[in-house]
Amino acid sequence: MMAMKTSDEQFKERVEKNLNDSFMRGAISAAQARFQTRRQARVEELGNWEEWRAHGEEIRKHVLENLDAYLYELSENVEKRGGHVFFAKTKEEASDYIKNIATQKQAKKIVKSKSMVTEEINLNAELEEIGCKVVETDLAEFILQLNDHEPPSHIIVPSLHKNRRQIREIFAKAGYDKSEQPEEMALFARKTLRQEYLTADIGITGCNFAIAESGTVTLVTNEGNADLVSALPKTQIVVMGMERIVPTFEEMEVLVSLLTRSSVGQRLTSYVTLLTGPKGEYETDGPEEFHLVIVDNGRSKILGSEFQPILQCIRCAACVNVCPVYRHVGGHTYGSIYSGPIGAVLSPLLGGYEDFKELPYASSLCGACTEVCPVKIPLHQLLHLHRQKIVEQEGKAPISERLIMKAFGLGASSSPLFNVAAKVASPIMSPFARDDKITSGPGPLKAWTEVRDFPAPNKESFRHWMKQRQKGEKS
Amino acid sequence: MTIQNRDEFLNQIAKSLGRPVKTKVERPVWKHAPQLEVLKNASQDELVEVLKQQCQNIHTTFVQTDTANLPNVLQQVVTDFGGESVITWNDERFEKFGVKKLMEIWPETGIKVYEWNPDTPKENIRQAEQANIGITISEMTLAESATAMLCSHPKRGRAMNFLPQNMIVLIPKSTIVPRMTQAAQKIHQQIEKGQQLPSCILFMSGPSNSADIESVLIVGVHGPVNATYIVIEDQ
Amino acid sequence: MKVSLFVTCLVDMFQGNVGKATVELLERLGCEIDFPTSQVCCGQPAYNSGYVVESKGSMKNMIKAFEHAEYVVTPSGSCAYMFKEYPHIFKGDPEWEQKAQCLADKTFELTDFIVNVLKIENVGARLKGKATYHTSCHMTRLLGVKDAPIRLLKNVEGLEYVELLGKERCCGFGGTFSVKMGNISGEMVDEKVRNIEETGADILVGADAGCLMNIGGRISRTGKPIRVMHIAEVLNSR
């Protein structure tokens, strides 16, 4: 298992397995309800949410169109404040640079706060390979890490699929012997991790938004772990996807508002932390050395393409929280660290169709994702665009499907042909029909009739009735 | 201080965008500005009310007092948190608000007091880690989200906002603004004037929390478990 | 007022009653019905599966079929939305873009047409029962028709309206999604039917043949005593 890809199983197997996980499904539908209610309240109280979305969109679009200029400005300002900037084209370049720092510092222990991009570049495994102990400090990530590095199932709450009993068992591996009360387990994590912060050599965080005008990194959290990760170790490394940037504090503020309301339904999270360079000359805490690693890893291929809007994403997971497909299959079915609608669009772009070609079809194109996106990414249209690419350019669609669609193209373009089809449909289907319904259909209908009946074709098509009726009127 | 691989990286971006590399761009005049509408014409008293209401949502105790009564109120809050040990910033504003004297007599009543010391980095962390209570002062306060803005400084450490069990933030009423918009505007103006930003600006809204276990809200994870805001009538 | 009926291929082949009800309802409201017989399918099944080239033939056929029409009305929000997408699909095509725009501009979903063009909110229907309504995704989110069907339903004499929990959540139809991802779709429709059952309604109303075929198929399989009706059938009840 490497980086983006989290499973070697076939997509169909993953679906099957997860549909049978009733705890996970109960947890997700309950969480979706809570997320949606809270988000709705925070959105409605503003009274002009559509204008907020329009503002979010215009900021993100402008930044993407001028990304080189803003990254230039950002790097200049980080350097002015005494920080180092490393531009990494690939995930290997990014992790090599970070490994080099760890080696130079003779780092034994590294504390981390939650970051999707470090998952993407497979950073933990890379650092462990050179002998570093890497400690995830976000409560959910801490749980998954203790559970043999289980992949995240949600981009905001990576352990959404786990229940308290399972978490207690996982904690037992680290010596926990108390109850399965969430508060008690959180206290255990607090005590365990306190010692880790205080003794770590390097702290690694992600970056919600970098601010070009000042070289500042914005971290948005509720637990406070990112702050301890960045305040206590002597060396801080920030890893960011290259598109996560805003011009000034003013745009940062707008996007943070959109993010916290959309993701967790809060006006602001408990902590919004703005870090500029290493600690000041006479300050006694904060890092002595500050590194910013800016990662491309396939993003520049998306830039300038029809898929560019996906780079507007601010990783709020509102689309995940409303998705009716994610609701049933959960995050692990996607086989990628990015799940839900955002994952179904982004994973094939960053990881290729070979591994992720089913994801664009794991959607009913209901558009719920597009409706909630705070920066107006047309998610369902991008899923459709993937399907188009898979059919037209990649030739990856099954042959049987291509034949059916060809036949459709002919049949549906001409009414005489359709009339014939409509006429023969009823007799052809009649062996399968009982009481005007089909309970066990042939071919593609099989999947349908597993759980529901299919109507038998009308014995008299509507058009025939209409024709008779119009004749009757005339006579 | 190094910047590595920048040219090649930016060239690739420009190539994708189908134009030559740009290193400068004018920030546009935005079509929308919904953030300016929030609590637009609210008076200072109305903002206090918004802040007070929001404190309930973020599990934070709200107390309001005038300067004269502040020592009594602060004493009460510290007592409610169980006293024991207090860590504070090294901040002349404590004197201005008339609580410096109170802090000086705490050791006599059995409450240990430690003041952040720019000369003893290790001791600062050790003390902060063991302190029962941390006391800080908000630079700017956001009514909408009940948020205190805390800036790092040699005499005001950043770890102090996270390590103690309980947090007390003094909030001068004059520092209250509608929302983060006004704080961001002010910081942006400072940058434009060429002023140096603190290495850490923290917007803190109540105690730390997590909903990572079965979506149950747990208040107090890595950071403080409890928080109290004391709004001071300073105008 | 002359109305050209776009009946949709699903209704034509599987749900003739919906077509009949639509015709009778519109006539009762004073419309003269024209039925262009060269119409087939809007192309959505192929289009949504990514077969854009294959779907364009059927789209052109539809553009031609309705070229003469003054108003095009259809008992399906999803198919109406497909017509609205045509100009986008034929963008830059000198021969078809303009024609596609014309078709899009004169196309209306049935309830939208009744409420916003005919300006009628009470069609004089009578039906006894307790009904709940599933809001189809394409109709509400993409086409933007939200209030019209509810307003019409609330004015049906004898009909008690109860809101459906999670009414805006997809039923799992999604065209070819329902066969391509049959098991996921099956779980979605199962939850939808459970939610419908919880309302205590004895009639489930919808405005899209695809969703109704899906939900109805599940209700039929589980043997629940819930009648599935297209809104045209409800509004045509007297």
From TrEMBL, chain B:
InterPro entries: FTHF_cligase-like_sf, LUD_dom, LutC, NagB/RpiA_transferase-like. Residues 49-232 form the LUD domain. Transmembrane segments: none annotated. GO terms for biological process: lactate metabolic process. HAMAP family: LutC. Belongs to the LutC/YkgG family. Is involved in L-lactate degradation and allows cells to grow with lactate as the sole carbon source. This is Lactate utilization protein C.
Automatic annotation (TrEMBL), chain C:
The gene is lutA. GO terms for molecular function: oxidoreductase activity. HAMAP family: LutA. Belongs to the LutA/YkgE family. Is involved in L-lactate degradation and allows cells to grow with lactate as the sole carbon source. Coiled coil: none annotated. This is Lactate utilization protein A. Pfam families: CCG (PF02754). InterPro entries: Cys_rich_dom, LutA. GO terms for cellular component: cytosol.
